[in-house]
Amino acid sequence: MKITLIQMNSGADKAANLAAAEALIEDAVARERPDMIALPETFALMTGDSVGKRAEAETIPDGPACRMLSALARKHGVWIHGGSLHEAAGGKCHNTTTVWDRAGKLCAQYRKLHLFDVDVPGGASYRESDTILAGDSVVCFEAEAITFGCAICYDLRFPELFRALRDRGAQAIFLPSAFTLMTGRDHWEPLLRARAIETQCYMIAPAQIFAHDGGRRVCYGRSMVVDPWGVVQATASDRVGHVSACIDPDYVHEVRAALPVGGHHVLG
Q1: pLDDT less than 70: residues of the chain
Q2: How far apart are CA 73 and CA 221, in angstroms?
Q3: Of 56, 112, 150, 219, catalytic
Q4: Per-residue pLDDT tens digits for 44-55
Q5: Cis ω on the peptide bond leading into residue 40 (within 30° of 0)?
Q6: DSSP code of residue 40
Q7: Ranges assigned E (strand) in the chain
Q8: 40 and 223 Cβ atoms separated by less than 8 Å
C-alpha cells in the first residue's frame, strides 16, 4: 500500500487551512497516485486561542473539515487519514483522528490519550489540557488487509500505548504530529525509530512545520516513515509538501519471524 504524508504549516484561519489541505491532497493524488493520504495533527486549525478552538470544533462526522475529507476520499477513491482535528466536547475539545475509506465513509476515530502539558527548555510552556480532554480508548482499524494503529504526537513518548497497539494486531501505526522544534531536533527520529523497532511496525508520521501563532510555536516538520526494522524509509524536506512510502505487511511478518520478540515478554 502506497501512503503519502502531507506536511503543513497550518495557522489560525480554518478556511485557509482547509483550502491548503485540499490543494496538497489534490497535488498528492496527481503526482503520487497513493492508496492512502495522511494529514498532520490539528491540520484544520493551529492556534493557542482556546476560544477559537472551541468555536471551530466539529461534531464528527459533521463540520467543514470532516465533509471535505469525506468528499476528497470519495472523489479520488483513496483512504484518508485525517491527522487530527478539534472535536466538540462540551466546554473543551478532543484532539481527534478521523479515518475515511475509499467511499468517503468514516471508519475509525481516535482521541489523543496523552496531553502535552510541559515547560519546554527555552521558556515556552504548553498546556494542552487547558482546552483538550484526553481520550480513553486504544484504536486500530483495518484497511485492505493491513491493521493500522492510531496515536497522536505526544503519545510517542509512551511505549505502553504502542505495545497495546501491536497486541491488537497493528502492523503500522500512524502518528500525526506538531512536534516542537526544540524537542524535535533531538527526539523525533530516535523516538520514531525506537517505537518501530519495539513493535516491529511501520511508523507513519505526518507533521506540521515552521512557525504558528505569530512565532509563539515552531514545529520541527520532517514527516517520516520508518520501517519495522527501524530504518527510515522516507523523510519530507523542510518545506510544506508531501512525501510517500510503501507499506508492505509481508515485511512486517519477515521481521517478526526473524526476531520474535512479541512472544518473549515476561512482564505485563
Answers
A1: 120-123, 268
A2: 24
A3: 112
A4: 999 988 888 999
A5: no
A6: -
A7: 2-7, 36-38, 79-81, 85-89, 92-100, 106-111, 117-119, 125-127, 132-133, 140-143, 146-150, 172-174, 202-205, 209-212, 217-220, 224-226, 232-235, 241-246
A8: yes
pTM of the model: 0.96
Q: What is the pLDDT of residues 1-33, one digit of tens each?
A: 999 999 999 999 999 999 999 999 999 999 999
What domains appear along the chain, each with residue ranges and CATH number? 2-263 (3.60.110.10)
Q: Which of 41, 56, 58, 87 is catalytic?
A: 41
The catalytically annotated residue of 66, 93, 153, 201 is 153
140 is catalytic: no
Residue 201 is a catalytic residue: no
Q: What pLDDT sits at residue 121?
A: 67
| Grid cell digits, residue 156 | 510517542
Catalytic-residue membership of 14: no
Q: Which residues pair with 96 in a beta bridge?
A: 85, 111
Question: What per-residue confidence (pLDDT) applies to 229?
Answer: 98
